[in-house]
Design goal:
This protein is an alpha+beta fold. It contains 3 helices and 8 strands, in the order E-E-E-E-H-E-E-E-E-H-H. It has an 8-stranded antiparallel beta sheet.
Length: 152
Amino acid sequence: MHTVVEETVQARLILSPQRSVRLRVTLAYLPEDPLAVRMAFPAEFSLDDRTDGSGSDGGDGRDGREDDIVWVFARQLLGAGLELPSGAGDVHVRPALGRRTMVELRAPEGTALVQFDSADLRRFLWRSRLIVPEGEEHLHLDADRALAELLG
């Protein structure tokens, strides 16, 4: 049986240099997907124009629960971004002033900039590394399962 690391934290969605809104974000780490972390955002913060009530996994590379928008990206990226600007493509993570960390999520619908307390992210990563230490992710990979998912 695998232990899931899950933690709900408060963050701020930056709307403009003068405006932001608080939101809850659920961070999750699954040992059966040892290279990735998940960030789940409430559906009301989606950039999608979804009026059909469908779940968030619309074939756009995001993995979701019914009501949440879930982004999946490298655990290593989250850790590196606590120290130095990191990322390429859809997800960028960088330190900010005042013990904060910025996560920038880019989708065809637009870009979201989310500010976290760095201590929350460090605690989450620490807990994930207790389950699967950094550098030992390969011991938890299931190549057959990954290939089956890839081939559909």
